[in-house]
Amino acid sequence: MSGIVVACAALVGAIGVRLSDYGVPAALLVACSLSCLATFTSLAFRVLDALSTTTHQCKQPGCDFRVRLTNADAAENRRWQEIAARHPHRAL
User: Which residues pair with 55 in a beta bridge?
Assistant: First the structure.
């Protein structure tokens, strides 16, 4: 996790150096750098979270039943897969 923050900070540092070459004022440079750091780390953690998330959903057309599992073991994953397959459908 800290590697992600270090990589994002290095990227922000490179962007900051390039912006300072154009004579951007220090206050604006700090604001841009901090916003880029927040954006890059948020994106990196969202991608990391998406890679460890499994989604099970109903296969019946029109049904929006969905379960998202994060860091679940094989037994828990299978249990929710079966629940998604046999859940009751709402009749309109």
Answer: 68
Q: Which residue, 84, 78, 8, 18, is CA-closest to 48?
A: 8
Token pair for 4: 């992600």
Domain segments of the chain: what residues? 2-51, 53-86
Q: pLDDT for 23-64, tens place per residue?
A: 999 999 999 999 999 999 999 999 988 888 888 888 888 888
How far is the C-alpha of 44 from the C-alpha of 21, rounded, in Å? 27
Q: Cα(49)–Cα(44) distance, rounded to whole angstroms?
A: 9
Task: For residue 9, give the DSSP letter.
Answer: H
In 1-92, alpha helices (H): 2-21, 26-51, 74-86
First to last CA, the chain: 46
71: left (phi over 0), alpha (psi -120 to 50) or beta: left
How many whole angstroms separate alpha carbon 60 and alpha carbon 67?
Answer: 15
